[in-house]
Amino acid sequence: MSMLFPSRWPATRPDIIQLYSLATPNGQKVGIMLEETGLEYEAHKIDIMAGDQFDEEFKQLNPNSKIPALIDPNGPSGQSITFMESGAILMYLAEKTGRFLPSDPARRWETIQWLFLQVAHVGPMFGQFGHFFKFAREKTSDSYALERYTAEAKRILTVLDQRLQTREWIMGDDEMTIADIAIAPWIKALDFYEGHETLGTESFTQVIRYRDQFYARPNVQKGAAVCSL
Ligand SMILES: N[C@@H](CCC(=O)N[C@@H](CS)C(=O)NCC(=O)O)C(=O)O
Known about the structure:
With 229 residues, this protein is of the alpha+beta class. 53% of the residues lie in helices and 8% in strands. It has helices at 25-37, 56-61, 86-97, 105-135, 144-165, 178-193, 196-199, 205-215, 218-224; strands spanning 17-21, 41-45, 69-72, 81-84. It has a 4-stranded mixed β-sheet with strand order 2-1-3-4, with helices on one face. The protein is globular, with a radius of gyration of 18 Å. Residues 14-101 form the GST N-terminal domain.
């Protein structure tokens, strides 16, 4: 899909990538990828607390009213392309730059599987845990939802911790990939949810080591601060 830039968030450099985001875990992924790849881009803050995501112009970028969204004016065949969904954006930017997605077909598909595991499980389950643990405590007297999402978040942390027992990164020792750029911001989100004690995060030593190693990278720190909350 190609489109004109939204007038509410004008592009001062319409020749470069335009990012529409906020520094939430899903938003951070794309800021980090852009900084790690060194692509030129312009960032526009979308305030989801103020309801910017429901603006008709934003819905032209993402009909699902979620950040992040992105326009690349130099997309396939030199045409402009518009993106929703952070996982798809990471794959696109990886293909565009030849970075953070292994070229070996078997390793490439394995990376994509872990990327999908983040999009389908880590994000939704951690997000629901955060919702019921931090934001909806007063709104429900039923403990079922919090118990369910706490158990799921712990189960997923176990899966990640086991994977990282023998690997520095999700795909191995010397190769950070888009799977890491997708997963690590969601580990960091547990700080914001203040859920470490409930989840027993400290016992997932490899996950903690992995999160700290990821956020020690200068480009990760720069990318994570794009469109700050
Ligand atoms: N699967 C989507 C999820 C995007 C998403 O849930 N974004 C949240 C912020 S982390 C959002 O825009 N929330 C606004 C809302 O729900 O109204 C992706 O990975 O891009």
